[in-house]
């Protein structure tokens, strides 16, 4: 599953449901019974516009190219008690985490958080009654039928806030996408330069114990000043606001230096700590709630340094922050089983608030 350059997390569309078909005025004619009674059928229901959450999707791009979505009207009723056929519903697939709003009233229409969940955003009009409906003991030949009801029509704003269990944060080049690729079925773009990832990538793995799905979201890297728009800014952080846990990657490599060049692999605990703080500050400037989430901090790229250097970095964080880093190598696939188990523990043991 990839967002790629076609990632769209906001669209405006107009939706128009189908009108109901009209009821019919008709009287049965049989050979020996000239007045066999009214037999005008009801009109059919107009098609509705329905959103349906699909966990395979990560973007609203498909809707970007459809500014107006309309469903067909219902058929008119006919004689011999024939009902008009219903207009077909139009089902629009959207990614999990899509929130639908009516921009004209400001109302939130719904939040699609579960795979397969449906939301009617424009209801098709009901069909009108045919005259068969109006027969009474005193009026056996009603000449009355109703028109169908109009279908709903509205403007719609769809906004995506991805639903994932865990979100990756870190400086560009820390190895977030490499880690996503190593842990899950995803195949994100990986490269030795910053801002390789320009849109969220999702990946899924099965929890080792419970075999339940755990969804991970890899987002573009953060740099100092992301909250003021530096780099790719911090707008992608909204896609990890709903996660249960963050995975913050630090690595013996600080990303860019002041002049924009890549710095060399650097195992200096202070430099790594500085990079860590920088990302923490950006999280806090974005939202205290996000910064306050449970976080697994991983020291990645341990294959580039020796075990003494790894120990020195772990000791530094332990002393300075009271934080126990989890040493891993995303590329060398070490420490990943521990990380999977920690993720499972956090995602499935804090009951009741998984959304
Ligand atoms: N040696 C080593 N290299 C790694 C490891 N993890 C990632 N890399 C390399 O680090 C570089 C950056 O990796 P990415 O996964 O693209 O980093 P990212 O954090 O997603 O970067 P952005 O998308 O730019 O934010 C690539 O050249 C990777 O091959 C690791 O565990 N060990
Ligand atoms: Mg990346």
Protein topology:
Layout: E1 10-16, E2 49-54, H1 61-64, E3 68-70, E4 90-95, E5 98-101, E6 108-112, E7 118-122, E8 153-160, E9 166-170, H2 176-183, E10 201-206, E11 213-218, E12 245-250, H3 269-286, H4 288-291, E13 294-299, H5 307-321, E14 326-327, H6 336-349
Parallel strand pairs: 1-3, 2-4, 9-11, 9-12, 12-13, 13-14
Antiparallel strand pairs: 1-8, 2-7, 5-6, 5-8, 10-11
Helix pairs in contact: 3-5
Bound molecules: guanosine-5'-triphosphate and magnesium ion (MG).
How would you briefly describe this protein structure?
This protein is of the alpha/beta class and 355 residues long. It is 18% helix and 21% strand. The protein has helices at 61-64, 176-183, 269-286, 288-291, 307-321, 336-349; strands at 10-16, 49-54, 68-70, 90-95, 98-101, 108-112, 118-122, 153-160, 166-170, 201-206, 213-218, 245-250, 294-299, 326-327.
């Amino acid at each position: 599953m990839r967002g790629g350059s076609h990632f769209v997390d906001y669209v405006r569309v107009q939706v128009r449901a189908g009108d109901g078909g009209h009821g019919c005025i008709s009287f049965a004619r049989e050979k020996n019974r000239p007045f066999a009674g009214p037999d005008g059928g009801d009109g059919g229901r107009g098609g509705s516009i329905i959103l349906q959450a699909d966990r395979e999707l990560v973007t609203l791009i498909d809707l970007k190219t459809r500014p107006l979505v309309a469903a067909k009207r219902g058929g008119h009723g006919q004689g011999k008690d024939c009902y008009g056929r219903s207009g077909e519903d139009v089902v629009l697939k959207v990614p999990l985490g899509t929130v639908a709003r009516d921009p004209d009233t400001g109302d939130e229409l719904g939040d699609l958080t579960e795979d397969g969940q449906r939301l009617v955003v424009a209801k098709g009009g009901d069909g009108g009654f045919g005259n068969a409906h109006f027969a009474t003991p005193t009026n056996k030949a009603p000449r009355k039928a109703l028109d169908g009801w109009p279908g709903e029509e509205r403007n719609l704003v769809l906004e995506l806030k991805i639903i994932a269990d865990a979100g990756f944060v870190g400086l560009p080049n820390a190895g977030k996408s490499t880690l996503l690729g190593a842990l899950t079925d995803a195949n994100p773009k990986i490269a030795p330069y910053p801002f390789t990832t320009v849109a969220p990538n999702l990946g899924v793995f099965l929890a080792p114990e419970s075999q339940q799905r755990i969804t991970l979201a890899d987002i573009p890297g953060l740099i100092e000043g992301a909250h003021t728009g530096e780099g790719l800014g911090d707008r992608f952080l909204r896609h990890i606001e709903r996660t249960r846990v963050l995975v913050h990657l630090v690595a013996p490599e600080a990303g860019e230096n002041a002049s924009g060049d890549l710095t060399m692999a650097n195992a200096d605990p202070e430099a790594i700590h500085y990079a860590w703080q920088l990302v923490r500050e950006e999280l806090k400037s974005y939202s205290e709630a996000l910064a306050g989430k449970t976080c697994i901090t991983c020291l990645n790229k341990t294959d580039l340094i020796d075990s003494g250097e790894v120990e020195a970095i772990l000791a530094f964080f332990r002393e300075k922050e009271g934080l126990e880093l989890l040493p891993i190598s995303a590329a060398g696939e070490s420490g990943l089983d521990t990380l999977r188990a920690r993720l499972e523990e956090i995602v499935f043991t804090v009951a009741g608030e998984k959304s």
